[in-house]
Write a structure and sequence with these properties.
Mean pLDDT: 88
Number of helices: 11
CATH superfamily of the largest domain: FAD/NAD(P)-binding domain
CATH architecture of the largest domain: 3-Layer(bba) Sandwich
Strand content: 25-35%
Structural class: alpha/beta
């Protein structure tokens, strides 16, 4: 019996991998939610109501479990996983044994201990259940102003979505820039300017002191700048907390957790096979710290890494030895007119190469003469991808413009192959020939 705790991208990817090797081994999935697997990066589309069920439930809904002969147990949160006894305990008191188990229960929204977070109208926006609650509140209450706490990717996407739905949006970010883990100061400033022109009000370098209410509902948010103690109020009838997530590690007993200098810095540690320190217990997705492409353990709570780790775990659980070649943290923010994205690392890079082409700003970070990371900010429409570029699929070129799909393919080839940049590569990058350049004599530009 293979038991999978969780029902996100890592879990369903593991199912596909297992079934490609073993058609008969019993698989049981426990989900804390009532829904089939859904795309976690489409929450703003759900708020806008511009996504089909086929796209949201990206594996085919409940048919996925029938097709792969999986016993799906919904609305059943896991209370404890004991790898010594090889059992899992659910919150309703049931105990289930396993031969092998994949922990893929993900992460939870971190809610800071701010006065007023329990008021009606305060929500997080991580899960589909959260988003349905937000939609219902917007439809049944008079909401004009919304405060979003946190300017990470989810916060920024929600801000623009709500702005274009007709609400006045204020974003409070404790760091000195928006998207602080995705963009450096220069690229963040460029992106923030574009969003402010659309009408979003940002308060960077500020923190929320309290959420104030009336008759049990939100009425305003008290904010102060970090550099002084002067507080001010922002009128708000809704607050969305988007200050980050934390791995749900407290459920799993007797496993090694990612720590540095005695402090927890990530999730459950896994090796290159997605195995934990406990026998027959695997982990994938937001709950684990896996090995990145530079050979270091890192906690990467992003969709692409979860999918990759899920497949690796599934193959190994089914008896087919597969190695995770290393995860890359890459992400993109899907906003209406201007897009931003990044991959890899940048904070301790040796240097950066920058260029601008037709309204798109691109920056590539170099460390030890190799590509260490990249960032881009720019308009979606003024340039087109070159369909002759062999690193781009027809799907990529039909989307137009530069985005996560194109830059990810290109830069990840540099990072994964760990090929030092030549001067020819650098000159090509500056000209916009952003691809692997593995055969310079036949180089085809990315853009036309």
């Amino acid at each position: 019996m293979i038991v999978i705790a969780g029902n996100g991208p890592a879990a369903v990817s593991a199912v596909e991998a297992i079934r490609s090797v073993d058609k008969d081994v019993p698989i049981r999935i426990f989900s804390s939610e009532p829904f089939p697997a859904y795309a976690p990066n489409c929450m703003e589309n759900v708020v806008r109501e511009d996504i089909s069920e086929e796209a949201l439930f990206f594996k085919g809904g409940f048919e996925f479990y029938k097709k792969h002969n999986v016993e799906f147990i919904a609305n059943t949160p896991i209370e404890e996983i004991d790898p010594v006894a090889k059992i899992i305990k659910t919150k309703n008191g049931d105990i289930h044994s396993y031969d092998k188990c994949l922990v893929a229960i993900g992460a939870y929204s971190f809610i800071p201990p701010i006065e007023g977070v329990d008021l009606e109208g305060v929500y997080s926006a991580k899960s589909l259940s959260d988003v349905y609650k937000i939609k219902k509140y917007l439809k049944t209450n008079e909401v004009k102003d919304i405060v979003i706490v946190g300017a990470g990717p989810i916060g920024v996407e929600d801000a623009q979505t709500l702005l274009h739905m007709g609400y006045k949006v204020h974003v409070v970010e404790i760091f000195d820039r928006i998207l602080p883990r995705m963009l450096d100061h220069q690229m963040s400033y460029i992106y923030q300017q574009a969003l402010e022109k659309e009408g979003i009000k940002f308060y960077t370098g500020h923190q929320v002191i309290a959420i104030q209410g009336k008759d049990g509902k939100v009425k305003s948010v008290l904010v102060k700048k970090l550099s002084n103690d002067h507080g001010f109020e922002i009128n708000a009838q809704m607050v969305i907390m988007s200050v980050g997530v934390r791995p749900i590690i407290n459920v799993v007993k007797n496993v090694e957790i990612h720590k540095e200098n005695g402090k927890i810095v990530g999730g459950i540690l896994t090796n290159e096979h997605q195995e934990t320190s406990a026998k027959d217990l695997y982990a994938a997705g937001d709950i684990c710290s896996s090995i990145d492409i530079w050979g270091n353990h890192r906690w990467i709570a992003l969709f692409p890494a979860a999918v990759q780790e899920g497949y690796v775990a599934g193959f190994n659980m089914a008896g087919k030895k597969v190695i995770n070649t290393g995860s890359v943290d890459y992400n993109a923010v899907k906003t209406k007119k201007v897009t931003a994205g990044s991959g890899g690392l940048f904070e301790d890079a040796d240097k950066a190469l920058s260029f601008e082409k037709d309204g798109v700003f691109f920056k590539i970070f170099i460390k030890n003469d190799m590509v260490y990371g990249y960032q881009f900010v720019g308009h979606k429409s003024p340039i087109k991808l070159n369909p002759k570029n062999r690193f781009l699929t027809p799907k990529h070129t039909s989307m137009g413009g530069i985005g996560l799909e194109s830059s990810g393919v290109i830069m990840h080839h540099f990072m994964r192959t760990k090929r030092p940049l030549t001067q020819f590569d650098i000159e090509s990058i500056k000209l916009g020939n952003l691809r692997a350049l593995s055969n310079p004599a036949k180089d085809i530009p990315l853009w036309v």
